[in-house]
Amino acid sequence: MDPISIALGLAQFAPSIMRFFGAGAKSTAVVDKVLDIAQTITGAPTSPEALAMLQKDKEMQQIFNMAVLQLDGELEKAYLADTQSARNRDVAIVASGAHNYRADSMYVLAIILIAALVYVVLKSGLDEYAKGIVTLVLGRFLGYLDNIYYFEFGTTRINRSKDTTIENLSKVKEKE
């Protein structure tokens, strides 16, 4: 059984890891960490054996899920640290008396394109197929606008909620 199939099998016990499974080196690294966690928790010498042991033991499934949540928290912290260093760059630019034209131009460009795409969808004589394509592009630019706001004003409340959940689960584990 290949590592990705095993990791997908393990995802039934910790669904939060699914958001990391895509293409690229980052996903491969996450798969390797998840397999290591499963083998460490079960004591199994191989990943397929770890999956089989987890499928039979509810308590191990819970321990595995908590360990994956901690991994998720670590990955999220790394992402936030990276974002923070980019924010620190922006603060340094402003502190030096310069203006951050890059950030302003990204915001203005996103707003202009969103307005133009909304106009095209509402006022043009395009057929439904073409409007669907324009709407997809519009959705993408709305996502870009979300990212700009998240960068400028911080992460979402969901991330704070997840951190609290991980902290609470860790406290429960420490008591045991």
Walk me through what this model shows:
With 176 residues, this protein is mostly helical. The chain has two domains: 98 residues, no CATH class; 77 residues, no CATH class. It is built from seven helices and no strands. α2 crosses α3 and α4 crosses α7. The protein is flat.
Q: In short, what is this structure?
A:
With 176 residues, the chain is mainly α. The chain is built from seven helices and no strands.
What distance lies between the first and last C-alpha atoms, to the nearest angstrom?
34 Å
Secondary structure tally: strands:
0
Q: What structural class do you assign from the helix and strand content?
A: mainly alpha
Task: Bin the strand percentage.
Answer: under 5%
Query: Helix segment count?
Result: 7
Radius of gyration: 22 Å
- Listing every helix as H and every strand as E from the N terminus to the C terminus, the arrangement reads HHHHHHH
- Catalogue the unreliable spans: none
Question: Shape, please?
Answer: flat
Name its key features.
0% strand, mainly alpha, 176 residues, 81% helix
Note the topology.
Layout: H1 3-10, H2 25-42, H3 47-56, H4 58-95, H5 101-123, H6 128-153, H7 157-175
Helix pairs in contact: 1-2, 1-3, 2-3, 2-4, 3-4, 4-7, 5-6
